[in-house]
Specification:
Length: about 100
């Protein structure tokens, strides 16, 4: 029995979720805004223009959510990142911290 439980726990740890790269602008975006974008699995992708920033973090909810999503510096002063987990469908408040 212990051997079976060990096998299943090891198998569960090695399976990874494959995130579908089919992002589209959210229907809740302000008119004309491309980001945030969401994919069919419920992951959100952010792009923020902050050329002088040292770090950019997007936090979901009014008080933030699990430390937020740290964005990585991309081209032309943009910062991009994707939430670590999927979000429930619907409207979400978020705030951006730029250092």
């Amino acid at each position: 029995m212990v051997l079976i439980l060990t096998f299943y726990s090891c198998f569960a740890q090695t399976s990874k979720i494959v995130i579908v790269e089919d992002y589209k602008p959210s229907s809740f975006n302000q008119p004309g805004q491309e980001y945030p974008q969401v994919n069919p699995q419920g992951y959100a992708q952010f792009r923020i223009l902050a050329p002088e920033a040292k770090s950019v973090v997007v936090s979901l909810g009014l008080g933030g959510y699990k430390g937020g999503t740290a964005l990585a510096k991309a081209e032309n002063g943009y910062w991009m990142g994707t939430t670590a987990g999927f979000l429930d469908e619907g409207f979400h408040y978020y705030h951006v911290t730029v250092n």
